[in-house]
Amino acid sequence: MATAKITAKLLEGIKPGDVFWDTEVRGFGVRCRTTPGEAYFIWKGRSPIDGKQIAITIGRHGRGDWPLDEARRKAAEYRNEVRLGRNPAAKPEAEAVSPMTVAELCDAYLAAVPDLLLARRRRAKKPSTISTDRSRIERHIKPLMGKMPVRDVTLADVETLMQRIASGASAAPLPPGVKGKPVSGGEGAASRTIGLLGAIFAFAVKRKLRSDNPVRGVVRYADVKKKRRLDPAEYRMLAIGIDRAAEQGMTPYATAAARFLAVSGWRRGEVLALTWNEVDASTRTARLKDSKTGESTRPLSHAALDILGTLPRMAGNPHCFPARSGEGIMSGFPKLFERLTALGGLPDDVTPHVLRHSFASVAAELGYSDAAIAGLLGHQGGTITRRYIHTSDAVQLQAADAVARAVLDLMGEGKPESSVVQMRR
């Protein structure tokens, strides 16, 4: 929810989910629910009798029902009545709005979340995370609980919601022409959605929309961690898929990104967001400004640097693995990776994240400790990501080289070890 002077220009550009509070009359606001440019004037305050929140719909804007100036005057009247000790919502001519629903609370949360700080990391959510939150709200929470009043939701309701999502009650195919994955539900989706719902109700408590969080105390399903990794045969199939994709004309930035993922163990988003000014070839170090765990320093293996060395820099784009045009990242990489793995004959469940798990498994098989592997992967708490460390040490560089070399050997792309041969005189 934003604060601004409500003007005719603001009303013309209002979009679904927007809520603005006026800077002139306290409690006066406007909310757009479904149709762009069509909004409701509202007023909120507290009852002088019991201190409970009062929410009143003044009228609709967009069809000539309520001009802006009249709505602002009406909000000022409601505010004055509260000052005089009267409850304007008790008036028969005042149309009191129904209690805020869970769907409306979700909209308010999404409008405010870009400015909220995560308690654990003290950073705002990333746009990709907000996009995932929006998807869970639209696909699970709103269809199954959206119409419930916020004040009436209980722990039992939340548990029922979780069980229904797990059983597939919110499963639905995608509408024709819409890209993405169909809604399937399951225990994993249920647990993650309930985690998000807990954050939404924590937001409601902070905004004094209710006094407690009904999600607190709900026992979620156990987090089943994926253990999928590539076996030696699949590593070879990955190399074949990369070669075939290159032969068929796939952008070299995509095939190079796939190789880089395999030999680095980085997250997909970290690879695609990597810029040239974050790479220091002289120290074999990458200084990531914005990874999942914040700023992160990573060792670069010789194999990773060799991959980067094959890539020409695209004019006007700072990224190592750029989009075809403009300044952005390669947004189509997920589809390109699916095509690449299919060309190699790999199963559908091989994703960029599987390459990360596989890299960690190879490192463990080589005998590296959990702390060393954490440093290579950029896990929070790993030695390479400690505060104030800006370069990779020799041990980390040696580990990065050893694991990358083992991965290339599995892919059939390893270089033979050099040896000294005594020549005849």
Provide a descriptive summary of the structure in words.
This protein has 425 residues and is an alpha+beta fold. Helix content is 42%, strand content 10%. Strand 7 and strand 8 form a beta hairpin. Helix 4 (127-145) crosses helix 6 and helix 7 (232-247) packs across helix 11.
Produce the secondary structure layout.
Elements: E1 2-3, H1 8-12, E2 19-21, E3 28-32, E4 39-46, E5 53-61, H2 68-83, H3 102-112, H4 127-145, H5 155-167, H6 187-206, H7 232-247, H8 252-264, H9 268-273, E6 279-280, E7 285-291, E8 294-299, H10 302-309, H11 333-343, H12 352-365, H13 370-377, H14 394-411
Parallel strand pairs: 1-2
Antiparallel strand pairs: 2-3, 3-4, 4-5, 6-7, 7-8
In terms of DSSP E residues, the strand content is 5-15%
Poorly predicted regions: 92-97, 382-391
Oligomeric description of these chains: single chain
- So what's the overall shape? elongated
Instruction: Let me know the average pLDDT.
Output: 83
Task: Using the CA coordinates, give the radius of gyration.
Answer: 28 Å
Q: Briefly note the structural class of the backbone.
A: alpha+beta
Strand arrangement across the biggest beta sheet: 1-2-3-4-5
Count of alpha/pi helices: 14
In N-to-C order, the SSE pattern is EHEEEEHHHHHHHHEEEHHHHH
Helix content: 40-55%
- How many strand segments? 8
Major sheet description: 5 strands, mixed
End-to-end separation: 84 Å
